[in-house]
Amino acid sequence: MSKPSTAPADSVDTAETPRRSLGRRIGITLFSVAAGVVVIALIATGFVAYTIQRSFPQVDGAVAVGGLGEEVTVQRDALGIPTITAGTADDLFFAQGYVHAQDRFWEMDFRRHVTSGRLSELFGESQLPTDRFLRTLGWREIAEREVAALDDTTRAYYESYADGVNAYLAEHQGADVSFEYAVLGLQNDGYEIEPWTPADSVAWLKAMAWDLRSNIEEETERAVIAPHFTADQMRELYPAYPFDRNPVIVPSISSVPAVGTVADVAKDGEADAATASIEWSEVDGVVEAVSELVGGVGEGIGSNSWVVSGHLTDSGKPLLANDPHLGASLPSVWHQVNLKCRVVSEDCAFDVAGFGFSGVPGVIIGHNARIAWGFTNLTTDVTDLYLEKVEGDSYWRDGELVPLDVRTETLKVAGGADEELVIRSTGHGPIISGLTDDYTAIADAPYTGTGGFVEQSADAPTGQYAVSLQWTALSPASTPSAIFALNRAQDFDDFRGAAQLFAVPAQNLIYADVDGNIGYQTPGSLPLRGAGDGSMPQPGWDSAYDWQGYIPFEDLPVSYNPDEGYIVTANNAIVAEDYPYFLTRDWDYGWRAARIVDLIQRKSANGSLTADDMRDIQADNGFFLGMRLSGAYLEIETGDEGTDAALDLLRTWDAQNDADSPAAAYANVLWSELADNLFVEGREHPVPLSDQARLFLVVDSLLRDPSSEWWTNESLGVTSQEEMLTRSAIDARARLAELQGENSAKWNWGSLHALPLISDTFGASGIAPIEWLFNRGPFPVGGGSSVVNATGWTMDEGFATVTVPSMRMVVDLADFDDSRWNHFTGTSGHTFHPNYIDQTATWQRAEMTPWAFSRDAVARSTSNTLTLVPAP
C-alpha cells in the first residue's frame, strides 16, 4: 500500500527534488517564505532550539485528560513506539488520537488541508491550483457522507479518536504542538488550529486511494501520445502482461463458503496445504542465467507481500512478509503502534499491533492475537476518463442534452482575496480538463479507446470537448468500517468479511493464522464495464460505455491453503486470462513477483524457511534488466578503452544492485541511456519513460528482434541494434564518469541512487536554513527500480531514490514476539526529536527490530510509561 506524496501544482524542480507526476504533486506542497531575512535572524537565535523542543511530547508520568473514561497506559520503547492499553474501546482510540497528536499533529493538520482542498488557507495563493483540483474531486464532502453512514459503534470509535486529538490540542497550541507552526507564523500569523473531526480521519483514506488509484497515469499517457503513433506501435509500447513468463497471484481460485455462512473455516488443527514441488536447473553462464533469473521493478507506487505455509517453515507455522512501496516522505506515512484492551471481550475486542496512519484510528497492516494480514496495491483499473461534449451548462447523453451538475465553492487564501470556484460534473464524475495540462491536452486532441486502442472521435455530437473522471473512491464506501473489522478478525471468514467492506483503495489482502492457514482475497469495488475496457478515454455521450455495476464479491479471486504452499503478491496480474471479468490491462509486469517466487522456491528447496529468509528476500537486489544487458553486451566491443573496461564490469557482475557496487552503477546508467536513446533523444514524438516495468518487457522484446525499427534513430546516426547498444554504452560511461569520476573502481550505486529525506511541507522552501532544520540525508541505498528491494527512481530525472519500501515487516505466526518490523524514518514527526529518523540506518541495511507484542515482551522493551488519567 501506500501514501499520497504531496507537491503543489506550481512547484519548482531542483536537482535534489525530482519532477513528479500530478498524482505525486497534489500531495506534496512546496512552501516559500518571502521574509527570508526575518527567518535567518530567527534561526540565528537560541530561541529556535527552545521552540523546537517545547513541542516534544511528554512520555513519562501522569497527565489528567478531560473526556477520558478510565486510566490508560502508554508504554514506549527506545524507538518511541507506543503500546496503548485501555479498559474500553472508546478509551483505547481516544488515547491513540492523543498519542498521534503528540507525535504527528502537524502532519495530520497538513493532510486534512490537502484532502479538503484548503492548502491556500495555510500557504497562500501559490497553492490555488492544487486546491482547485482537490476541491473539484470533493474528497471532504464524500468523507462526511461516509461518516454519516457509519454504524453507531464504528462512528463512536472515530469520535473517540477525534476527542483524544482535541484533548491534546486543548492544552497545546501553535508552536507547543509542533515547530512547523512557528515557521508558518512568519507568513501566516493569523492561523489557528481547528478541532479534529471524524471526517478529517476518513478523508485521508481518500488521499490514500488517490495514490493507489492504479492506471490513470497510463490511461492519460496513452491518450496524450496516441495521435502520434500507429495502433501497432502503441501495442508494442504498451504490451500485455507476460502470462507465459511471470506469475499470477491466484493461479487457481479456491472454493470457500460465502462470507458469514460459517462460524469458522478450517480452524481445527493444521491447514491442508501440500509442500511445494520444486525443481530447479543449475545455470553456469550469464546468457543462460538471463532466462532463469528475474528481478523486480518496484518503481513508483507498489508493494511486495507474501505468505508461506507452515509446511515450508522451520516452526511449522506460517510466515507473512510485507513491504509497501510509497513515495519517500519525512516523516514516513506510517506510525507504529500496539493497541490493547486490558481485558479482551466482546465490548473491547482489540489486541492488535502494526502500522497505521497518523490521523486515522486503528491498525492498517499488522496482526492481532490470532491472524496477520498484509496489503499490496491491486493495480486493477478503478478509474476511467470520459470525453464529454458540453454545450453551455449541459452535456450530451444518448442524443439528448442533459444539465450538468454545477456548484460553486469558496477557496480562502492566506494573505489574499477569496476565490470562487465553479465545479461542473457529469453523470460520470467531475470535469477535470482545464485543471491540469494533461487532461486539458486530452480535451484539445480527443481520442477514445473503443474496446481496443485508438479511434478519432469523429462520431461525437456538437459542443466543446471536456474530460470527466469516474473513480470508485468518488462514491461513499464502507472502508472506514473495514479497518476495525480487520483488527478484530479471528479467522479466514472474518478476514473475508473485512475485505468485503474494504472498497477503496483496492488492495491485495494476504492472510495467515495461528492454526496454520494461509489465504488471499481480492477486495475492493471493481467496476463492471460496458462497451469499453477503460484503457483509453471513452465517449461519455454514449451510455453503452458506462459502468454496469461492480463485480460481485463472491466472484472475486480468493485462495485458501494453495497446494504451492505460498502466495506472492507484487502488483502483478491476479488471475490468468480466462477469468470471466475484465480487471485491467495495466498490471505491474510481474518481475518482482517472479523473483520472489524464485527465491521462495530456491530457499525452501534447500531447507525450511525462517523469518531471516523472509528478510533476505525483502533485501534482494537482483536486477533483471541489468542481467539482460550483461548478456546483450557479451560480444560487443566499442573500441573505446574506458567503455570496454566498464562493460567488463558487467561480465563479472552478480546482477545485484548493491550500494557499493561499481557494476550496478554502470548497469543502471547504461539502462537509462539505452532507454533514452531508443525512445526519447532526437525523436519527434518522444515515448514516456514513466514505467520501467513496462520498458523492461519492451526492451527485452527488442533485444530479441534486431530488425525492429526502434533500433534506428537517425538523429543519433544509429541504424542498427549493435550501433544503438554501442552508442548507449559509450554515453553511459561518459555520464557516469561525469557524475562519479574516471576511476571506475570508485563508482558506486549507493551514492548515485541516494535517498534525500525531504519534509513534505517546508523541506523545499528554497530557504536553506529552513530546509536544514527539517531535511536529512541524502542516504546511500542499494536496490532500485527492477528489484525486490524497491527503491525506485525516475528516468530522465537523475537516479535519486524517490519511492521506497516504506516499511518492512515479517510476522511469525508461531510466536508473535519473534516477529520484526521497521520503517524508514521514525515514530516522531518533530524535527530533531530522537525518534525523528532513528530507524533510517537499519532501514538502509534492510534490517528490522524485534516486535514486542505479548504483555511480558512489551514490559521488557518499555523505556517510558505515560499514564493518562481522567481529569477530575
What would you say this structure looks like, in words?
It is built from 27 helices and 29 strands. The protein has 872 residues and is of the alpha+beta class. The longest helix has 27 residues, at 89-115. The radius of gyration is 27 Å and the shape is globular. 57% of the residues are buried.
Throw out a few tags for this protein.
single chain; 872 residues; alpha+beta; 7-stranded antiparallel beta sheet; globular; disordered N terminus
| Total strands | 29
* Oligomeric nature of the chains: single chain
Q: In what order do the strands lie side by side in the largest sheet?
A: 1-29-2-3-6-7-8-9-18-19-21
Q: DSSP strand (E) fraction?
A: 15-25%
Unreliable stretches: 1-38, 264-300, 450-455
Structural class: alpha+beta
* Morphology call: globular
First CA to last CA: what distance?
A: 42 Å
